[in-house]
Amino acid sequence: MATLHGNWVKLDQRGITQGARSSHAIAVVGQKVYAFGGEFVPRVPVDNKLHVYDLDTLTWSVADVSGSIPPPRVGVTMAAVGETIYVFGGRDVEHTELNELYSFDTKTNTWALISRGDIGPPHRSYHSVTADDRHVYVFGGCGVTGRLNDLWAFDVVDGKWVEFPSPGETCKGRGGPGLTVSQGKIWVVYGFAGMEVDDVHCFDLAHKTWAQVETGGLKPTARSVFSTCLTGKHIIVYGGEIDPSDQGHMGAGQFSGEVYALDTETLSWARLDDKVESGGHPGPRGWCAFASACRGGREGLLVYGGNSPSNDRLDDIFYLALAQS
């Protein structure tokens, strides 16, 4: 039976770097990584520039943009559908939860405000998004009155939001969960629901039904704000907060540096053999920006920045190249 494994590579950074930060987001279009939002000081948004990192030249630049530019924010999410990036929610400098949906056309470098207010999901931050070839899915996060467990989809063709049925109390409201779409299902993995949790849920897009998933194998411990991607039938989980700080978001909790994979067919977890190919291992961290990417012909997980066990914001970029043997 084939075994999934990964090799870590620390990527060089040239040009005008975005700088150390956490609670930011990235999206990948082709060989370009688009980075937005985040904090260096807890709860204080850094800027609203759109920074672009070229995976071929390993060079940063700042995009010359036009249109309705989103204000600075933390706890924001990004997802790409084709050559368009969608940015949703977050928390502004006044610590107010947001619910605007913006698009960014990477061909014209133009921002557009798509929805806000009573249209679309309620205000939130530290939620999760994933996308397929037509939809951007939004789940959970920290809302105005507490943690959320609602699931929404934005149809990029019709330009409309759809709210799906609630999962009910079996899937508690949570921030920082993993979210992927695979085999016609939306998978909600772990998260923070007043405590770190280790449950997995999925929503069947065809039947519009929720189910709690009983997983086996070598399960990772409960965690949130980890980095994740999908490769084939496997959901990859790296790092994350395994024990929150007594100071809440102002402090650093305990973080993991391990990599796990959940087989969405057998529903079995396995710890990945993740070796260092060059530049070192990213180590324990959470609150990173992350995305699926392809580099050197190999699919993998791109991880940028985040928060460290010493409560220092990080500015490095690592790529976990995945393969089966």
Automatic annotation (TrEMBL):
Give the UniProt entry's GO cellular component terms. Answer: cytosol; nucleus
Its protein name is: Nitrile-specifier protein 5
Q: Which SUPFAM superfamilies does the UniProt record give?
A: Kelch motif
Taxonomic source organism: Pisum sativum
Repeat found in the keyword field: yes
Lineage, highest ranks first: Eukaryota, Viridiplantae, Streptophyta, Embryophyta, Tracheophyta
An example Pfam family from this entry, by short name, is: Kelch_KLHDC2_KLHL20_DRC7
The domain of life for this entry's organism is: Eukaryota
- What GO MF annotations does this protein's record show? enzyme regulator activity
Cofactor(s) demanded = Fe(2+)
Keyword terms of this UniProt record:
Iron, Kelch repeat, Repeat
Biological process (GO) annotations? glucosinolate metabolic process; nitrile biosynthetic process
InterPro entries recorded: Kelch-typ_b-propeller (IPR015915)
